[in-house]
Amino acid sequence: MTLLPIVERCDNFSLDTTKEQLVPFHLSKDSTVPVGFLYPSIVQHLLDYNSAPDHWRPNAENNATADEPPFGVSSSRVYFSPSITTFQDRSALCKHLCEKWRDTGLFSDVIGGRLWRNELYPIYPLAMRDNTTEGAAFVMERVCCALFGFVTYGVHMTMYTEDGRIWVPRRAKTKQTWPGLLDNSVAGGIPYGLKPMESLIKECMEEASLPEEIAKNAKTVGCASYFYQTRTGWLQPEVEYVYDLCVPAPDVGSQYIPKPLDGEVESFELMTVEEVIQHMRSEEFKPNCAVVLLDFLIRHGHITPENEPNYIEILTRIHARFGFERYPNGVNTSSAE
């Protein structure tokens, strides 16, 4: 039986096939590649924000056009106004906008209450290039990125023993998202200011009580990428930096046994490959974690062209490009036709 449905559960959206109307979000009026895509409802809320007397303004002393609306809105794009061109100004505007939406109860099912993380994610001009701290165009509160269809980034590590078993955590039932599901050995988003390995080392200690001297032995093995649409319709294109960490079996090296620390993980269990695949088929894993495990199983020879009829499609879809550059004027809009 094919494992393709595991991929389809996560890589479940395409700009090429959607029938939904999406307006591109650009850094400027003249840019050629969008950084995100907006539903018309979000565009309307941005227009409302533009007309609000308390919308954010750049320093008027340094900018003659400080009183113009912060967002440019046309039939083919939304963009930062010509007065907002720096990392600091874009970030300050997004902070003010998102906090206003949160405080007034807009999109409470996405950004309200405990869902708000107080964690800033970097947004890059090009999703697959210059993904460094210096290359970021601005930052935005983590949970708000899905409202704009921005690409976000994370680190996912598979910790496995020398005899081929995999350490699998169960997410705490109190987690804001995907409570109680199975996860990758260690995983987390990359906040602004941290490099991927720095994020992984931080997550290893916070989630699994693994000190830096163990975590730094993880091997960088590539990336996984997919275009995910949430159950409520928001767009979450994501890129995960993928790591492997081979450790001794528990009876050989007890210091390599992961243990919950920060309350995000309920427990860890050492599973065979067969058990992992069974849990993946029964949808017990968080969808993107199942994709990272598929990548692991392919690289380690457990999934092959001989035992998986959809091997090529699985392989290509878990290393997807999002296609932003093909839709500078939007998707299913009058300007895109």
TrEMBL record:
Nudix hydrolase domain boundaries: 140-293
Transmembrane region(s): none
SUPFAM superfamilies in UniProt: Nudix (SSF55811)
UniProt GO MF annotations: 8-oxo-dGDP phosphatase activity
Pfam short name (any one): NUDIX
InterPro entries membership: DUF4743, NUDIX_hydrolase-like_dom_sf, NUDIX_hydrolase_dom
Cited Gene3D superfamilies: Nucleoside Triphosphate Pyrophosphohydrolase
PROSITE patterns linked to this entry: NUDIX
PANTHER family per UniProt: THIAMIN PYROPHOSPHOKINASE, THIAMIN PYROPHOSPHOKINASE 1
Protein name: Nudix hydrolase domain-containing protein
Organism, as annotated: Tulasnella calospora MUT 4182
